[in-house]
Amino acid sequence: MPGPTTSVMWFRRDLRLRDHPALAAAAGADRVVALFVLDDALRRPSGAPRLAFLYQSLRDLDAELRRHGGELVVRRGTPENVVPAVARDAGATSVHISTDFGPYGAARDKRVDAALGEVPLIRTGSAYAVAPGRIVKSDGQPFRVFTPFYRTWSAHGWPAPAESDPARISWRRGISSAGVPQDPKLPPRLILPDAGEQAAYATWHRFRQDGLRHYSDDRNRPDLDNTSRMSVYLKYGAIHPRTLLADLGKQDETFRRELAWREFYAAVLHFWPDSARDYFVPSMRRMPYATGKIADAHFAAWTAGRTGYPIVDAGMRQLLAEGWMHNRVRMIVASFLVKDLHLEWTRGARHFMRHLVDADLASNQHGWQWTAGTGTDAAPYFRVFNPISQGKKFDPDGNYVRRYVPELRGLPGAAAHEPWQGPAGVPADYVERIVDHAAERTRSLANYRRLRGRPSNGHATDR
DNA sequence: TTTTGAGTTGTTCGA
DNA sequence: GTCGAACAACTCAAA
């Protein structure tokens, strides 16, 4: 008679116990080991706020597991070494994961699969309602444009939330664990959102009651902040998008589209893994960018929130203060970096990846490429955000900029968006504008026009 | 097979 | 003050 079977549930970006297909699959064994690997390759490029949020999510997962008689095994090291070692320690006959479609994760899982030898690595489910790669055009080619993707994705549909009841799983304890590390030192006064599955559901239910109704109208208002705040939870899989989709009605189209954008960009990254680094539209590589000392000084001013443009500075300071930035403002600061400062989008994307708690490679890189006009659904080159009119339009009373840029607190209402216009001029402790928007816009348009007009793209137009 | 129209997120200019 | 046009080029699907 063989003894009880054991499986390893290797958690990664799926730090939850409910609606978890891979966990349900792992529970096919008699006992389940819960494992998380602190992978140095992923730890290094993460900023302190994101690491702290990850650690808090892990502590929450561990606490939940303990409530059900289990515990989380945390090990530091290289996954292809650690996962087989834990499987050996536990005498496991299978290792279960949610499929990772990112370029790093997919390659890592392949290595782990090979290192496991006889023990199968079983992939069930993913972080998406529809797995990247599943949705293609009728000719079999991947979509490059959102709207047709969205139509096909909507028609394709997705499964209802899965059953995975942690109370009915027999958890295996006693495998040696390094424990969750101490939180890294955080910037003073930084307040992270509550981590973990319960916090994700609580945040979601609050948004469903209070915010969802006004989402379509107010989501672009950074002063009102009527966004779902689900991005950090989706990032670490504290909640699954299909859980959110199941709660949406016909009238919640705008929010459903936002979830679809996340799926679209994951699919694009899946089909074009190089697009995390490289230009989706290759001809755009020739765009001239500013380099050298002034460019570096401009970049430093941008990161510090000292460009002299209030909405840009407010956003960049919010990023440093909270590890989060309102989506509308992300677009404004991105446009400013690329089209006013003429810096390459990759620099901005790296800064965002480091500082955002919700940083998601696919959404971040492709959002930046969209702004830079180098990606899918590329913004027409002439679409240059005006930081002043954007500020007045989406922060009409100036409340957002005054919250993050205290130097502007003496300026009433929308006047905070144009401190240089006030009777007293720019406040002494605030900065003068580092560039002139109108002039840089003109330069940007000329650059794009020249690049588009090159004969190499087969559509030469001399002007 | 070819044509046609529409497409996340904008701004400016001139009537 | 409001409104439409112009600012390109390319993808995709329906006709």
Describe this structure in words.
The protein is an alpha/beta fold. It has 3 domains: 6-126, Rossmann fold (3-Layer(aba) Sandwich); 197-271, Serine Threonine Protein Phosphatase 5, Tetratricopeptide repeat, CATH 1.25.40; 282-455, DNA Cyclobutane Dipyrimidine Photolyase, subunit A, domain 3 (Orthogonal Bundle). The chain is 45% helix and 7% strand. The chain contains 19 helices and 5 strands. It has a 5-stranded parallel β-sheet. Helix 6 crosses helix 11 and helix 13 crosses helix 14. The protein is globular and about 85 Å long. The structure holds a DNA duplex (15 and 15 nucleotides).
Fold topology:
Elements: E1 6-11, H1 21-26, E2 31-38, H2 40-43, H3 48-67, E3 72-76, H4 79-90, E4 94-99, H5 103-116, E5 121-126, H6 146-156, H7 197-211, H8 215-218, H9 231-235, H10 241-246, H11 253-271, H12 293-304, H13 310-322, H14 327-340, H15 345-355, H16 361-372, H17 387-394, H18 399-404, H19 437-452
Parallel strand pairs: 1-2, 1-4, 2-3, 4-5
The structure holds a DNA duplex (15 and 15 nucleotides).
Using DSSP, what is the number of strands? 5
Low-confidence stretches: 454-463
Proportion in helices = 40-55%
CATH topology name of the largest domain, in short, is DNA Cyclobutane Dipyrimidine Photolyase, subunit A, domain 3
Number of domains: 3
Q: Given this structure, which CATH class of the largest domain is correct?
A: Mainly Alpha
Specify Rg, calculated over alpha carbons. 24 Å
Pattern of helices and strands? EHEHHEHEHEHHHHHHHHHHHHHH
Major sheet summary line: 5 strands, parallel
**How would you describe the oligomerization state of the chains in this entry?**
single chain
Overall spatial form: globular
User: How widely separated are the two ends?
Assistant: 83 Å
- Kindly report the name of the CATH homologous superfamily of the largest domain: DNA Cyclobutane Dipyrimidine Photolyase, subunit A, domain 3
State mean pLDDT (0 to 100 scale).
92
Our count of helices gives: 19
Tell me which CATH architecture of the largest domain applies here: Orthogonal Bundle
Our estimate of the beta-strand percent is 5-15%
Major β-sheet strand ordering: 3-2-1-4-5
Structural class category: alpha/beta
